[in-house]
Amino acid sequence: MKLNNSQFGEFELPETAVYEFRHGLLGFEELRQFGFLHLDEFAPLDWLVSVDVPEICFPLISPMLLQPGYLVPMGEVERRALDARPEDPVVPMVIVTVGSGTPRATANLRGPVMLNPKSRKGMQVVLFESGYPVRAEIPLIAETQTVR
Question: Which of 35, 36, 58, 145 pairs with 11 at a CA distance of 20 to 30 A?
Fold first, then answer.
């Protein structure tokens, strides 16, 4: 499918890259379909782009780059929401934010986005009991790369 936004212009998003989020994302509960977009020029960032409102997109990064051993407990509720069997690889990603007036970027390690590539289902979880920070600085892109 073709999408268009001011960030990337017109781009092709394969159907296999579209994930259904039954409950949307925090603050964007009405948006249920997002495309996972990888662009080499933004590495190590990837993007989650709303299919319904392509102007809404979120930069993502693998939490493993920031926190070795990062772990998201997967209970029965999460597995059902993702249509994930125990053997299915579920991929955690975290949303990146760039503060206004500073080139520093942070990632929300407490609210990961979980993706099941097999079922193409996604969900955002909140790790209330974890010690993970909501604003973990990203040294990989801080001061060297700006999210547009």
Answer: 145
Domains of the chain: 2-137 (2.30.290.10)
Report CA-CA distances (Å) from 8 to 43, 81, 89, 96.
Answer: 15, 30, 29, 17
CA distance 7 to 145: 15
Cα(50)–Cα(1) distance, integer angstroms? 12
Please, are residues 48 and 58 in contact by the beta-carbon 8 Å criterion? yes
Residues recorded for the chain: 148
Angle at 108 between CA 132 and CA 45, to 5 degrees: 125
CA geometry: angle 63, 44, 4, nearest 5 deg: 110
Would you state the structure tokens that stand for residue 1, as one six-digit string? 């499918």
Q: Which amino acid is at 141?
A: I
Q: What is the pLDDT of residues 108-146, one digit of tens each?
A: 999 999 999 999 999 999 999 899 999 999 875 544 444
Query: Which of 134, 132, 64, 139 lies closest to 103, judged by CA?
Result: 139
User: Under a CB-based contact definition with an 8 Å cutoff, are residues 37 and 47 in contact?
Assistant: yes
